[in-house]
Specification:
mainly beta; 8% helix; 8-stranded antiparallel barrel; single chain; 2 helices
């Protein structure tokens, strides 16, 4: 009879796929040489979820952190009934110069036609994230960046205040396993990211955080 007065424990939230991850949750990556040492076999915590809003949809970016505080960005891509895990790291101006040379990289902005660029050097620290060459996949386009997760909410109207506009330029390797992404913000500030596309099965464990 006394069990009636015991506090009931709420059921633990279940995670069945990486797209369900939210802030506080964790994932573990496969122990594979496809990843640099600071990612291979590591458990990563979701510290933020951002929204990139396009005219006819949105993509969601999970900010992941390892136990040493190193950050990688994850987007889950759906294509032809398959899911891919796109892991991105941001690089600095000096890195761009070392990898491509600034003159080569500037052609992306200077040429009217879609551009193809080659990698001049492959620094060891970026080797898993780099292809030998990239081709521009589409013309530059505008999106709006929100520092919040809109997966369970209605997106604001496109161009509505609250989102930060940026111009996006995307280039991909011939096998689509790597990409180079450029975001140009108001005022000219530019972010450059290297992206590694991997099978979703590389994420081998999911751990829910506290609700």
């Amino acid at each position: 009879m006394f069990n009636f007065f015991k506090k009931k424990t709420a059921p633990t939230r279940q995670l069945t796929e990486p797209s369900q991850l939210k802030v506080g949750d964790m994932l573990t990556l496969i122990d594979s040489f496809a990843y640099p040492k600071w990612l291979k076999g590591q458990s990563l915590r979701v510290i933020a979820v951002h929204t990139y809003q396009y005219q006819y949809g949105a993509e969601y970016e999970m900010v992941l952190e390892n136990s040493s505080g190193q950050v990688v960005f994850l987007q889950i891509e759906q294509e032809d009934g398959e899911q891919w895990a796109n892991f991105s790291i941001k690089i600095e101006r000096d890195d761009v110069d070392e990898i491509f040379t600034l003159d080569e990289f500037a052609r992306i902005f200077d040429e009217e036609a879609l551009t193809q660029i080659s990698v001049a050097n492959t620094p060891e620290r970026f080797s898993q994230f780099l292809a030998r060459s990239y081709h521009q996949t589409q013309a530059p386009f505008v999106c709006y960046f929100h520092q919040r997760d809109y997966r369970q909410q209605s997106l604001p109207q496109f161009e509505q205040q609250g989102g930060e506009p940026c111009e996006v330029i995307s280039l991909a390797s011939d096998d689509d396993k790597h990409s180079l992404n450029i975001e140009v913000w108001d005022g000219g500030e530019t972010d450059v990211s290297l992206t590694l596309s991997r099978p979703i099965s590389d994420i081998v464990e999911l751990f829910p955080g506290s609700d």
